[in-house]
Amino acid sequence: MEKKQISLGAIFVFGVLILLISIKDLGYVFTGEATNINDLSRGEIKVGKHVEAELYYCVDWYAELTTRGRRGRRTVTWHAVGVLEDGSLVSICTKRATNEYYKIEDFIKASQRYLSGETDVPPEPIVVSGTVRKIDSEIREYYDSAVWLLQYDSDDVIYFDIDTSQKRIYYILVFLVSLIMIIVPTLAFVAEYNESKKKRIERLNDIPQNHYNDDPIFNKNFYEAHKVENRDVFSDNNHKEDKSVDDDNEYDYEDNDEYEDASQEKSYSGKFKLKDD
Asked: Which helix (H) or strand (E) holds 89?
């Protein structure tokens, strides 16, 4: 049971941590709205912010980056230089063999045809959306080289990647998983608490009650017998006391009468006396 509680507690803690980390993405999770990067100043563009960018040109892919996760999983991302409406450069990141990759690949070809003078028709701008990331240190020098070749000033360069590989569904799943990791252990703890409370009440109800009828000596008959006897004893004593008190009072009353008569005879004198013969 203790191992189960520890496991549930660990799941609950991890769920809370994931939820706290993903709080900044809740607006994007519920509304799906991303901020237009053209409406942000350079200081407002921060890592983790969800943005969309309208690209007027996309020069070329400037780097391919291969990374490996903790479990050895291999991830390949492609990075291109995009041109915004105001002429600023920004790095666009996507995964190979995805819809976004093919979309950007076609846009790069259309941009190169126009920039090389092959056609006079500019490409139709495209909108990409993603999360602002830092440009990986392994490909930063390639990005700087692309900026230098295009002869752009650093003030016109956004040194961030717009990662289009992570869609909104990813953030929705992260949010739902964090909620499940919080709710399930909470319900389990509540159910376990109610069960232990129920068992505790049942144990209390199963405790045998100490009724005096169960005692072989001091039972109901014993108390009733002594109760009657005590009542008679007290009644006889009261009666005797009352009788003795009455006798004493009666005796005292008669003695007082006799005393009063004797004293009256001794103290009596009349107004008239018989004359002596």
From this structure: strand 89-95
Cα-based angle 91, 97, 72 (whole degrees, multiple of 5): 85
3-15 pLDDT tens trace: 777 787 888 888 8
Q: For 220-269, what is each residue's pLDDT tens digit?
A: 666 667 664 444 544 555 555 555 544 544 444 444 444 444 444 444 44
162 strand-pairing partners: 92, 132
Helix (H, G, I), strand (E, B) or coil at 53: strand
Question: Which two tokens mark 4?
Answer: 């189960």
CB 219, CB 226: distance < 8 Å: no
Q: Return the ∠ at Cα 232 (arms to 229 and 237), rounded to 5°.
A: 125
**Alpha-carbon span 134 to 46, nearest angstrom:** 9
**How far apart are alpha carbons 89 and 110 in whole angstroms?**
18
Look-up of token digits 């232990």: 196
Q: Could you write out the three-class secondary structure of 131-155?
A: EEECCCCCCHHHHHHHHHHCCCCHH
The reported pTM is 0.58
Does residue 145 surpass a pLDDT of 60? yes
Where b means 16+ CB within 10 Å and e means fewer, 22-38 reads beebeebbeeeebbebe
Name residues whose C-beta falls within 8 Å of residue 175's C-beta, 6 or more positions apart in sequence. Answer: 19, 22, 25, 26, 29
CA dihedral of 169, 172, 174, 179, whole degrees rounded to 10: -150
Among 51-55, 101-105, 153-157, whose mean pLDDT is lowest?
A: 153-157
Task: Tell which residue, 156, 147, 160, has the closest CA to residue 84.
Answer: 156
User: Is the pLDDT higher at 89 or at 219?
Assistant: 89
**What count of other Cβ atoms lies within 10 Å of the Cβ of residue 170?**
13
